[in-house]
Records
---
Amino acid sequence: MSAVDYGDFTAGSDGTCTLDADVVAAAEMADADHGDVAWSSGVAAVQAVQADAIVKASLNAEDFGDFTAGTDGTCTLDADVVAPAEMADADHGDISWSSGVASVDASTITAAKLADAVQDMLVNSFTAVAVPGPDGKTNVVTVTAKDMGGNTLAAYSLFECWIGDTAYSVPAAVAGEFTVTTGVEVQEITDKAHYLVMTDSNGNAVLTIEDDAGRTNALHIVSGGGKVTATTLLWDTP
């Protein structure tokens, strides 16, 4: 067969025949299922897409309305596709939907979950570890900020402290010096006795306190919420 147009089809030089594009009118299509498209009375209807009807590699990289196809054949659902009214009335985990309205489940927010969320943001207490010096006249005290979970709070934190002759007593000056060696002395309220101190960015402050050998007194620290703790300081005789 020669390579020529024979009306409704064209013959190729390789002996194949190709039906011309405008040969079959819509009305001439048989009422039947033609795979992904069904014909009825000359009208085509796209079938419910079968799992293998459209392969992802065949999609152009463009916006298809509710989803966008990528050049790698992946599809991404657009952010504004699902309206609240389209959400199924059901429990969706921590949130339940009913008539397009979302409500947080009562069991979602618990005291434990709130504690977990804020525990690393709030100062709950300060610990103090005192190490007496070998001369019997010096105590080096490391003060550390703690969060609600008892972990070190790595943040600048302010505390009030004073030396008392006994635990939970009024301020009483030491015989030597009271020095903030790590952190910042914000305010001296009473010389050698009562101070406001800010920790460093790691939540630590170091106080060097000098007093007479053989004494016993206490360092008081005001924690978050006004809680006061007292740490005994021993001044050993060398």
---
Amino acid sequence: MQHIDLQFKIASSQDRASLPLLNYYLGFLPLNTAERLKKRFRFTRGNLEFATWIKPSQIASCVRQAGDRGFSVWVSADKHSVFFYGVALIANRRKRTKVLNWLRSLARPGDYGHVLLKDETGNMQLLKIKSPGHCVFAELNLFSSAR
């Protein structure tokens, strides 16, 4: 997979209700793999999605920590890099801040990830997160469900 800035087009209310960050990254996979993962996450709902690159040595601890926080996850690894995706329903702003700080701590040094936040009205905010020692969260885009 490539590291690129994300640009979403939320076309319908069904798209807004689904997992747009997951669907974006699935677009880079072979069709059969993408379909299998879509089926796996088809009943999963959340107001926070993340996608980041982690060190191979972090896989077990990241999956455990994500599970402890209520995330459904997908990990894709080769011998050089690990792509880590998760989605969960985060109850309040304080918990969301803790999750964002945890996600920032996961990113490989010098690398970044993405977080998509949805509020109760369907508005979405896409954040770019960097590893510790780099700039704090940088907002990339803001989406509104209003038509």
